[in-house]
Amino acid sequence: MNTSDVNSAVFPPGKLPFDLLSRLLDGYTGPNKRVLVGPRVGEDATVIEFERTCLVVKTDPITFATDEIGHYAVHVNANDIATMGALPRWFLATLLLPEGRTDAALVEAIFASIHQAAQEIDVSLCGGHTEITVGLDRPIVVGQMLGEVQREDLVQSADLQVGDALLMTKGLGVEATAILAREKQTELAGRGFTPDLLSSAQNYLHNPGISILKEARIACRTARVHAMHDPTEGGVATALRELAIAADTGLALEGEALFASDETRRLCAAFNLDPLGIISSGALLIGVAASDAGRVRDAIRETGTRCEIIGRVEDRSFGLKLRKNDVWTDLPTFDRDEIGKIFES
C-alpha cells in the first residue's frame, strides 16, 4: 500500500490511530513554559502552572449514551482530573441537541442530570453553550472540567517506572455494561436476560459507578502514586497501551487478574464483544512502586471496591504482553471501541 492509500483511508468511529494523533499533537501544538503537561497520548488532562497551584483542564464528549447523559459527562470529565492527582472544581458543558427531536422536557432532563452529578462531587456548573444542531440523531454533551492540584502532588502517566506494579479497580467494562443494558434493553430481554439482571446492569452507572474519584484519592493518600489512567473508549487494553506510550515502557499483564463481573461477561458474550476492548469508565489503572502495591490495593478494598494487581511495568523492549495459562501473547489492539459494533447504522 502506498502513502496516498494510507492517507486516504477512512477511519472507524472512535479514537484516532496513536501514531497519527501523536504526529498531529507534535506538529500543531506549541510549547509554553507554564504548561507542565501538554497534549500527548496517555495523559488524561493538561496542566497549567499558577505558582504552587496547578490548574488541570479536561474536555471530553459523551456520544454513546442518551439516558442520564449529563451524569456521564460530569463524571467522565471529573475522572480525568482525578487521575492527575487533582480535585475537580468547575464544569462547563456544550449541549448539541438533535433537530426535530428536542423539546423542553429533554433539555431540562439533561440540565437536571448535569446538576445532580455535579452536586454529588461538589463541582460547580459555571458555563457552557446549548444549541439545536442539524444532522444529529441523539443529544451530544461535550464537557469541560477544571480542577486544582498542588505542584508537588501532580500525577502523570509519563512518570510510570520500570518495576512498578499496576493495579485495576472495579473491573473491565463498567460503563459499557450500563450502556448495553440501557440502550439494548428490549433486545436483551428478547434474548432471555431477566429483568433483575438487566436492572442490575443498568445500575452500573451508579453501582459500582463510573466515578473513580474516591479510589484515586485513597491511592494518593496511601502511597506515592507514579501514574493513574482512566480507561474510556477502546477499553482497558487501549488505556494500558496509552500508559505504556506515555511512559515509554513495556507491560507484563496477568490475564487472570483482568477481572470483569458476571453481568459484564454475559452482555459481552451476547454481542460477541471482547471485554478488554469495551468502554470502561469506572475502572482505574494505578501505577505504584511494587513495595506499595499491596497497601494501595488493601486500602481501596476496605471501602468495598474491588482492586487487583494486574501486572508490572517492564522495559520497553519487553513489549506489551498478556499471560494466560503460562503463555505470553501480545496485548490485543482495538481500532475502535468494541461497543461500536452494535451501534452501527
Reading side by side through the largest sheet, how are the strands ordered? 8-10-7-11-9-12-13
Strand content range: 25-35%
Which spans of ≥5 residues are poorly predicted at pLDDT below 50? Answer: none
Termini gap: 29 Å
* N-to-C SSE string, H for helix and E for strand: HHEEEHEHEEEHHHHEHEHEHEEE
Largest sheet: number of strands, sense, barrel closure:
7 strands, mixed
Helix amount, in percent?
A: 25-40%
How many extended strands? 13
Output mean pLDDT.
92
Broad shape: globular
* Structural class by secondary-structure content: alpha+beta
The number of distinct helices, counting runs of at least 4 residues, comes to 11
Radius of gyration: 20 Å
Structure description:
With about 350 residues, the chain is of the alpha+beta class. About 35% of the residues lie in helices and about 25% in strands. The chain contains 11 helices and 13 strands. The protein has a 7-stranded mixed beta sheet, sandwiched between helices.
Give the gist of this structure.
Helices cover 34% and strands 25% of the residues. A hairpin with a 2-residue loop joins β12 and β13. The protein is built from 11 helices and 13 strands.
